[in-house]
Amino acid sequence: TTDGGISWRLEQSDSNEALGEIFHSTSNSFAISGLNLVDLTLGKVSATAKMPAGISRLLFLNDKNCVGIGQHYEIGFWPYGDIHLTNSTWNSSIKKSYSPASESLNFTAIAKKANGKVLVLGAALLATPIVEFKY
Predict the structure, then answer these.
(1) pLDDT for 40-51, tens place per residue?
(2) CA angle 50-55-59, nearest 5°?
(3) CB-hemisphere CA count at 13 Å for 106?
């Protein structure tokens, strides 16, 4: 809508991807589709955005720097909580994993704080882990 909700216009994507959540960088809007980021401005899968498996939420710090959170499975029943960092729109990334026994089964929420900090909330067997880091 461009008139406060009096009239509405449907936007169509040229992508055949099944789109999930919407995320915004400084100048672009993306949706997750599997391990891909779909650029909603262009309506297609971004050529540089193949994300690591297990990411369920993103926080763009700018157009190239992004934090992804989620989980992965190794041996056994319980998942490991993961925080992924990229400075290259997912061309490369680093991952910090937290063990399910004592730290985190999954990370579920992420937000920017003041002074260049990020706060991540998790889920564990007996507590709610909180991770804070500077970027």
Answers:
(1) 776 666 555 678
(2) 90
(3) 12
